[in-house]
Design goal:
The protein has 116 residues and is mostly helical. It is built from four helices and no strands.
């Protein structure tokens, strides 16, 4: 921005320079220094006090979303891994269990009626 002001000042016709109120670059430096001092001495905007709370709430919200995303990704990877391992490991052939000696089982129990 200062470069633009300097360039514009140098390109300005000599007759218009006194009308601008700034005669030399040192006057421009003093003017900018005064403006900077006024800004430094001005009271802070009260909205700045609430800004930290809003920023921290946003940070917490983003962190929670990131944790949820990572947890979901981890659950998906574990599920895919278990499915892959289950499909790769050869299964043993199914065999019926031997008939246990059950004492006091009714002849009308579903397993007895179905012939098992």
């Amino acid at each position: 921005m200062v470069f633009v002001v300097i360039s514009a000042w140098r390109m300005m016709p000599a007759g218009l320079k006194p009308l601008c109120g700034v005669k030399v670059m040192s006057d421009l430096d003093q003017l900018l220094g005064q403006v900077a001092a006024q800004m430094r001495n001005a009271p802070a905007d009260p909205r700045l006090a609430r800004l930290e709370d809003a920023v921290m709430a946003g940070v917490v919200s983003r962190r929670e979303r990131a944790v949820a995303r990572r947890s979901l990704a981890l659950a998906g990877i574990v599920a895919v891994g278990i499915g892959w391992i289950g499909s790769v490991v050869p299964g043993s052939p199914a065999q019926a269990a031997s008939r246990p000696a059950i004492i006091g089982m009714s002849d009308y129990a579903p397993s007895r009626l179905l012939g098992q």
